[in-house]
Write a structure and sequence with these properties.
single chain; 749 residues; alpha+beta; six-stranded antiparallel barrel; 23 strands
Amino acid sequence: MPDKQGARMTDGRTTGSARAFELLEPLVQAATVRVHAPPGGYENSRSHRTGPTWGSGFFIAPGWVLTCAHVVGEGGAAVRLTGREVGITFSAGSLTGTVTGRVECVLPERLEERRPGRHALWDLPDLALVRVLAPVSHACVWLTDRSRPRFDEVAYFGCTEDLGTPEITGRTTRLRGTAGNGAAIRLGDDDEIEPGMSGGPVVDLARGEVVGVLKARRQTGGGGLAVSVVQLRTLPMAARGQVGLYRRIMQAHDLYHYDQHLSDLDNRRTWTDVHGELPPEEGDPFAGRGRLTPGERTTLCGLLAELPPPGSSEVVRALVEAARGEEPDPLPPAPLSWRDGLGLLHDPPGGTGEAAAMLRYATDVSVADYREPATPGADEELWDWVRATAERLWRPLRRELGERHERGLAERERRRRASAGRAVHGTARRAGGLPSGASVLLEVWAHGWEDLYDWRVSVLAGPEHAGRVTPVDSGVRATLAGLPEALRVPLAESFRRCDTHEAAALLEVAVAPELFGLAVDAWVVVGGVPLGVQRPVVLRHPAGAAGAAGTAATAGAAGAAGTARAARAAGAARAARAPRTAGAAGPDPGGAREHPADREGTDAAARWARVQAGPLQDERADCAGGRPRSPATEWLTGLPDNTVPVHCRAADQEPTLGSLHAVRDAGYGVVVTRRPPPEPGASCAPFHRGLREELADAGRAEVLPLRFQTLRGRAYGADPDAYWAAGAGLVWEDPARPLPEEDPLQGDL
């Protein structure tokens, strides 16, 4: 009986996957390398004598090897990983060469300070990028652009010594699921994973693309884990105005395969050639005209790589949504390159052809605003390719793409004229103010009466799409000490979504006033630098907090300090919710405390507008001459609208807690707080003196978030003239950035 696609073979593989393995094996083996101790020289024909094998790796772009962090950490657990030199042995045709490589980056970054002991499982994603230190000619794999793998048959490759000599071999299995919130892929136990194979590539046999990096095998033998190659998107973000490592490597990856596809200098099979020979998938609804051909896909990726990268992840997501017809998968990691956008367009909804969606996306990219001027003619070349490729598709799509391109050109020209006009007549955002784009929102709630906290991280779309919120992650029952570690990954993902090449996104921390002392600005998430130094960080009052819940949260947060203090804090919270003066807006009948930014036509709107324009007037709210005081409601309401109330004492203690509630109810949208220094007798005079000078120099409130970031950077850099700013916080109730009204998490039942 003749074989059919999908029929089982005696070795466990389908006939289709067996053919795919046969086609892909030479390409993958040519790009897979052995990792070991650095050689004495750049070349060593007897590479098997360079010392024991630490693991495997593979070239993902010219000069760049991807492997596991635990592989490059082999043989020196106390040695710093980044900057370490390793040996790379690879095959180039019939020749074998050995070169020295240097570890440029490991993921996660904390592995530099805290790594597991020998034979322990390293933290995900457990990846390392190695830069080869000699110009060599080698092959590169084709990396997937999909955000998540399909659970089909795969092949994995790595270094083994079955016959006593190190060699690159491949075996097959199936993907069984994911782990670590999608960062890892579970491998079946169809074949054995040997120790030297760690760091080798995992290849989707149906699509001919590398989807993972071998990480570990089960202790009992058979099966194991691989790291999704999509985790490369979590590489540290670049400094402002620079192109990040991820984007540079993916650009080099795509241009390598583009050049290979166009070259006619030899007749060796390329990845694009093999993609065209792979057996077709059964039941593919987009077969034929519904998908781009392998050559078209390679060309599209190459043309996109020749353009400047997108300004932010949100730009990519917006274009994908417009081309796909629905919001793309919000799960991390965020798309960072134009190529990543293609990965979100596979299998579009409603029977829409995948090729049509990708051509719409490419059309929009050809008329997008880039982070820097494109190479002359690069965007026109992309559009010419789209128009030529659409010739083989149906006529209505060709007409649609032409109209889409014309609209895009007109809109881009309108934006450029508007931008040129602002440059002449004054910018829309005055120098030093916050960018108008998306921001990251961190919400933390006390978990009832316990010293535990629930949290949520979201992306706020910004004033242009006020109220649009995209959840990123949430959690319950974290301790205050455990919050930085619990929030490290969600915050890093949110920053990747919101940061642009021009500015780091604003971080808004919405917590009850008793948590205003939470040292979020001092947390280290990525890059080894505190958040408050990397980006502007401001405090927000949570929106729509019910009166009873606010009282319970206050008392719960104060529980660690004793019952008496909890009662005082709860009483202060109730007092702060009382009406201020006759005719002033008091609590609603249900007891909900409204957010100042939600009140129009009251003193809150007037105070916000006035303080933004300046000049600024500081006023001590919770102390007088260094002694604590509780501000009277009449005094607060009578202060000028350009006043910035200043607090120098602990936010979770009286009188500061009551004062924070009172200034909020009085409509102040810009307030300064401070985490007091550890010395209880330290004078607050330097803080007030330094802040007064800072406010006077700032002139207007709209520049304060970025000026506070600069102050934190100076204090972090040991500038003695900025020591007074340590622990300073800025409450920033921008009415153009409304907070979501959803109820907080309820936690475990």
